[in-house]
Here is the input.
Amino acid sequence: MNFPFYIARRYLFSKKSTHAINIISAISVVGVAVTTMALVVTLSVFNGFHDMVASLFTQMDPQLKVTPVKGKTAPADDPVLTQIRQLPEVDVATECLEDQALAVYGDRQMMIKLKGVGDNFDQLTHIREILEGDGNFELHAADMNYGIPGLGVAYQLGMGYTYPNPLKIYAPRREGQINMADLSEGFVEDDLYSPGVVFCIKQGKYDKNYILTSIQFTRHLFSQEGMLSSLELRLKPGSDFEHVKAKMQQLAGDQFYVRDRFEQQDDTFRIMKIEKLIAYIFLTFILMIACFNLIGSLSMLIIDKRPDVVTLRNLGASDKQIARIFLFEGRMIAFFGALIGILIGLLLCWLQQQYGFVRLGSSEGSFIVDAYPVSVHPSDVVLIFLTVIAVGFLSVWYPVRYFSQRLLR
Here is the structure.
């Protein structure tokens, strides 16, 4: 058996001559455990929000989205896009054209994002699952074009699920000069009609800005015949996603970007990652402060065990072995604090997942979810454990070295 470890284990659990040493040691373990628990719970809550946002975005965003590197649009019959959509792994491909426009309904108006999509858009995404109203997913019928607004857009324009009057859409003409005497000549105007539904994805980015319609309507309105702003794709079940994406990017070269769902919402997820990192750094700093309790605990233990040190020296123990006894003592305090903190943190996360004790609001339905979402990632648990052990081990090295040289001679 490792001699320094054996003695350190006895010191950790044995009764000291001064009761305050036991109390300070217990406080050291509690301090490390509480900080570790806070790390587990905080990072798991960030993971919960990340997973929740990801699940919401997938209702509208395609698996893969191909967009031009230069400019806002590209020809729909571009050879590269043709090669991509003809890959055997591609199940559904939809041409989309998206740009800003002015929507006017009655005496209300607002700037919106008008997204024209193909008729198979409902096969590409889960759009039907987020529709509210009495109608169906329809983009056009005969010579009429339908517009499906986000819930926020419908509210701001005062339309409701069904709007009886046509919704007027305006976009600036791309050719010619504006006649200051008659500004209306500088805009293309067209009408959208209600299919009896709105979409609600519970994300302001979409609900408060977007109107879905047919791509034929947007091509006419924006004077972009034969063009697209993105090619949106869904792969066949069982396809190797990363392999297919890499193959598409190889075909696209430097002409097009190929983005998955997370890359399409890169800004949102990057902000969440930064927030999680900052929370981790702050809590690690608090952990470092909590580990200062170890210095007091070990210094008092060294003073208390000076007679034992003399006995151990007489029995042949070297100064290095004696120093290692107190190093092991501090490291065991850090280890048990980390272990207890992780177990309590995982228990709290499980209770929150099952019962939702910590709620986001006092009334049901005020938010997307009623309680704070929690998702425990094993990689985070491993990272937290290693962080606590590393901070704990480093925090005891210098004090033990210093006190062993000053007090044990």
